[in-house]
Automatic annotation (TrEMBL):
All residue ranges annotated as the Alpha-L-arabinofuranosidase C-terminal domain in the record: 434-622
Stored Pfam families: Alpha-L-AF_C, ASD1_dom, CBM_4_9
SMART domains named in the record: Alpha-L-AF_C (SM00813)
Transmembrane portions of the chain: none
Lineage of source species: Bacteria, Pseudomonadati, Bacteroidota, Sphingobacteriia, Sphingobacteriales
Name under which the protein is recorded: non-reducing end alpha-L-arabinofuranosidase
GO molecular function annotations of the record: alpha-L-arabinofuranosidase activity
Protein family according to the UniProt entry: Belongs to the glycosyl hydrolase 51 family.
Length: 631
């Protein structure tokens, strides 16, 4: 193989490798959003879902669910509890597949309460382990006859995967309760009511170039009424209207119903997280069309204004200063500095004439007011390969900025498509490989695995993305997260339970590309041709102008080892010691798991460079990243 280290072919965008986030597979509620109480504000279709009335020692009382929708349409339900005995009456919450709590960690219990009678009803909160033992407790005495928030902290004496929370009420009287909540004190950046630190850390470790949010199909909704509306996802959490999650009824055999979006992880939190992990924010907004795989409901083009206004207001929210309405709101929410929004998606997985019609109106309105904002346009999934071509041609004619292509395909497709962008029109729109993942069985199959064969095929494909970095500016694997006990879609990048998480082999592929991204692609060739499948090998090379290194990425997809030699031209030479990181397994079915999180994970060592030649033994079924430091 030859590497021409002085012939820059393409600049690699800082955004090249990023993250796709969607609240699917309990990614947000029950996942990264650290709230431990499920149905905290009684807004599920069955308002007492996840709650159980508890009685002990002859305790008695009654619970009514009150609907105050005229007064509080965004948070209509609360419970009124008539405590009829001095003690022994209350309720418990099951959490999201239980509550994961850790020994010695502090938890904050809070609620909105209002005493209805002269006698103040007292709360005794108990955290109980799987065997029913009390592992943490606290008392709270609400005193006001108006709604007020109360909170108390306590520690857990044990680590338990599936704890439950009991709230006992004592002293005869009537009390109203809403937004009953339990959060760990230790969250990402220790923000109160924040995110699970271990999960966000996994995102930070990817060193992502962008964070796309909030999806995915939940942007669209099955019907327009349950589309994602960013304005309802910011500000006080008790004012964020809960809706049923678009993924609630999907694959019922895997996830029981009761999958709601509380929006505790809302747009402000998404922007903050993107900032925390150094990723450029990429919000995707509804373009007036519900999911075309479901109802395909859409608003008439004459009624698009509120949707467009949401997009314009979002840009002002992210970038405007405190003299603007939405910039002021961001400032009031504690973030005076702008979020530096540079791009915005108009629709997710939309297609057809109706989409183009709406896209044109959106794009004109956005570009008229904010010409520098790049619009990400949907081309969606394309099982037959026709939709991409059609939309690509249309969007090229419309001077679109970035096209969001999705591929959920077989490992073979990924291997066969490493040259996908080699002959792509260099003058047209840029490509965002916005959702992709090799499917071990079939798209939508619950039997899909995050196995090494799939991850290796993705690595081979990504060498092709990187080689064409002048066209492909962004790429993200999808979906991102999945709870091992509650998911609708496989494969997924990161799996977790209530306490732990692990990165899949696919995660490590993403990470190796991202942390070794480099700044400029240089040619790596075999007989003057790109290395894109000859003898089952795939490779790309780039310079990192910040660290003064040459970075080689090499995939051997075969079952035999390959002794390869790189002849490097156009360089003043390299330091003798290079680092080589290998991701490998002889077993294509190998997977990581909560028990064996590192079964397939990167291993680093050093190798010797001889002048301008580098000889490497590339193991079967392996992906290697080699970094050579300039002399
Ligand atoms: O990633 C899961 C789903 O796949 C996304 O919601 C959607 O955009 C795609 O069809």
């Amino acid at each position: 193989y030859t590497i021409a280290a002085n012939q820059v072919k393409a600049h690699i965008q800082p955004t090249m490798y990023g993250i796709f986030f969607e609240d699917i597979n309990m990614a947000a509620d029950g996942g990264v959003y650290a709230e431990l109480i499920k149905n905290r504000s009684f807004e599920f279709a069955m308002p007492l879902a996840a709650w159980k009335i508890q009685k002990k020692d002859g305790g008695t009382g009654a619970i009514e669910v009150i609907n105050r929708s005229a007064e509080r349409p965004e948070n209509p339900h609360y419970i009124k509890v008539n405590v009829k005995s001095d003690d022994g009456y209350g309720l418990s919450n099951e959490g999201f597949r239980g509550m994961g709590v850790k020994e010695g960690e502090e938890y904050s219990f809070s609620l909105f309460a209002k005493q209805e009678s002269d006698n103040n009803v007292k709360l005794s909160v108990e955290l109980r382990g799987t065997d029913g033992a009390i592992i943490g407790k606290a008392e709270l005495l609400p005193t006001d006859k108006e709604w007020k928030r109360y909170s108390v902290k306590f520690k857990s004496a044990a680590t338990v995967q599936k704890a439950q929370l009991y709230v006992w009420l004592s002293g005869k009287g009537i009390i109203d309760m809403d937004m009953i909540s339990l959060f760990p004190e230790h969250t990402w950046k220790n923000r109160p009511g924040g995110l699970r630190a271990d999960l966000v850390q996994k995102l930070a470790d990817l060193k992502p170039g962008f964070l796309r949010f909030p999806g995915g199909c939940i942007v669209e909704g099955r019907e327009l009424s349950n589309r994602y509306q960013w304005k309802k996802s910011i500000g006080d959490i008790d004012k964020r209207e809960n809706i049923i999650n678009r993924w609630n009824t999907e694959f019922k055999h895997r996830l029981t119903p009761d999958y709601y979006q509380t929006f505790g992880l809302g747009f402000m939190e998404y922007f903050l997280t993107a900032e925390d992990i150094g990723a450029s924010p990429l919000p995707i907004l509804n373009c007036g069309m519900a999911c075309q795989f479901n109802t395909a409901e859409m608003v008439s083009v004459n009624d698009l204004d509120p949707y467009i206004q949401d997009a314009l207001d979002l840009i002002e929210f992210a970038n405007g200063d405190a003299s603007t309405k939405w910039g002021k709101l961001r400032t009031d929410l504690g973030h005076p500095a702008p979020f530096n929004l540079k791009m915005l998606g108009v629709g997710n997985e939309q297609w057809g004439e109706q989409y183009i019609e709406r896209w044109k109106i959106f794009t004109k309105a956005i570009k008229d007011k904010y010409p520098s904002i790049k619009i990400v346009s949907s081309v969606g999934p394309d099982p037959d390969g026709e939709r991409f071509d059609l939309l690509n041609t249309t969007f090229r004619g419309l001077n679109a900025d970035i096209l969001d292509e999705h591929y959920y395909r077989s490992p073979k497709w990924f291997l066969d498509n490493a040259r996908r962008y080699d002959n792509y029109d260099r003058k047209g729109p840029k490509i965002f490989a916005g959702e992709y993942a090799a499917q071990s069985v079939a798209t939508g199959s619950p039997d899909n695995k995050n196995n090494w064969d799939c991850a290796l095929a993705e690595a081979a494909f990504i060498t092709g993305l990187e080689r064409n970095a002048d066209v492909v500016n962004m790429a993200s694997y999808a979906p991102l997260f999945a709870h091992v006990e509650g998911w609708q879609w496989t494969p997924d990048l990161i799996w977790f339970d209530n306490l732990k998480s692990y990165g899949t082999p696919n995660y490590y592929v993403q990470q190796l590309f991202s942390v070794n991204k480099g700044t400029d692609v240089v040619p790596l060739t075999q007989n003057n041709d790109a290395v894109a499948g000859q003898d089952g090998c795939y490779a790309t090379a780039c310079l990192d102008n910040n660290t003064h290194e040459l970075i080689i990425k090499f995939v051997n997809s075969t079952t035999s080892a390959q002794n390869v030699s790189f002849n490097i031209t156009g360089s003043a030479g390299y330091q003798k010691q290079a680092t080589i990181t290998t991701l490998q397994s002889d077993n294509g079915n190998a997977e990581n798991s909560l028990e064996k999180p590192n079964a397939v994970s990167p291993v680093q060592r050093t190798i010797t460079v001889n002048g301008h030649t580098l000889k490497v033994n590339i193991e079967p079924r392996s992906f290697k990243v080699i970094r050579l430091k300039n002399k």
